[in-house]
Amino acid sequence: MNKDLTVGKPSTVLWQFCLPLFGSIVFQQLYNIADSFVAGRFIGENALAAVGNSYEITLIFIAFAFGCNIGCSVVVSSLFGGRQYGEMKTAVSTAMISSAVVCLTLMAGGLIFCDPLLAAIQTPAELLADSKLYLDIYIWGLPFVFFYNISTGIFSALGDSKTPFLFLAASSLSNIAVDILFVTAFKMGVAGVAWATFLCQGVSCVLAVLVIALRLKKIHTTQPVRPFSLPILKRLAIIAIPSIAQQSFISVGNILIQGVINGFGPAVMAGYSASIKLNNLVITSFTTLANGISNYTAQNLGAEKPQRIREGFRAGLKLVWSLCVPLVALYLLAGNLLLRAFMDHPSQGALDSGIAFLWVVAPFYFVVSTKLVADGILRGAGLMRQFVIATFTDLILRVVLAFILSATALGSTGIWCAWPIGWGVATALSVLFYRASAAREFAPKLS
């Protein structure tokens, strides 16, 4: 059901809208967690390392899908909030067409450059075949990834966070079952893990696109609806390109960091592969909540209600911090058990590396979640220059420090220390940019 985010108490509206988004991203992450879980438990430590190694490259593709999702979601939110339904439908079709072009381009590039990318991150010889196999299958499923992301962006723009949650819950649970079936019963190895994800994402994508089409058909408008619009494409690009750049740089940075980690051997690689999945579950969840805050911001600006944005920022902080408390406690107190879930008879080196990562990084979730809430408002308001500065500061610091600190006596632990330092500096910038924008961009509209 479509929901107007411009009416009602901001804290109540955000909690009702964002909590299903949080549930959705938890299930979304189950795709990758299930792959690693099944690979580690039923195939072996090398299979877990191969899937984790490939995952860093798949994040490049996800970055583009995520950027298309955000661009579409913010523009459609603004048009929906402003009751410009004809332009809103044009924005949807424009986003679909442009995303298809981007997707096909990435598929061609991925199939051509898969081997050089794996070589660039110093993939060990014993992991190369499985890493390439997983990547090839993943690339053929990219259309499902793209169109599903566009569909969820549209659902969020219309104020509906429950429908994508239901899709993801069913799809993710199915993925776990199919993963286990393909690997244990059909003995398909790493290929079984990849094909399970391919099939389950495909079904979820097709259903989501069909529901979106039916939902839009019910929204009546007297305005003309065009299949494609260059002005709207420009609006989409203004939001999408910085978001793609952000996520792509994260992916490239992670690939560079993965190269540093690979130099410490398969045990550290396996420990990192398991712990980074747990970390990504949290960060991606907070990022998705920030996307919801972007939708909230865009709808309220479209409806000319900027005064609600400051209240939304405070409500957003309470939301993410309330989620930080149990997550940080879980990772610090039960990290060993969580890591063991990914690995059958793990080596002590793998466990030590994973636990060290969680102990260094998890306490700083309170910091990075604050940054993501501020980023959500900056992006929803179209203040992309400020968003890019804060985000790239974090990413550059993390990559540079990973190289520097890993060469010290800290060893692999030095790599983990790069996360909180980058997060701390970038959070300070994001909050400063938000406060300046709240005084300059939003307040004058109140008069």
Given the C-alpha coordinates, what overall shape results?
A: globular
Structural class: mainly alpha
User: Distance between termini?
Assistant: 34 Å
Number of helices: 14
Query: Helix content range of the residues, please?
Result: over 70%
Mean pLDDT: 85
Proportion of residues in β-strands: under 5%
Report Rg. Answer: 21 Å
Instruction: List the uncertain runs.
Output: none
The tally of beta strands, per DSSP, is: 0
Compressed to H and E, one letter per element, the order equals HHHHHHHHHHHHHH
Instruction: Report on the biggest sheet.
Output: none
Describe this structure as you would to a colleague.
The structure is a single chain. Helix content is 85%, strand content 0%. Helix 13 (384-406) runs antiparallel to helix 14. The protein has 447 residues and is mostly helical. The chain is globular. It has helices at residues 10-43, 45-81, 85-120, 125-140, 142-157, 162-185, 189-217, 230-262, 266-302, 307-340, 348-361, 365-380, 384-406, 412-442. The mean pLDDT is 85. It has 14 helices and no strands.
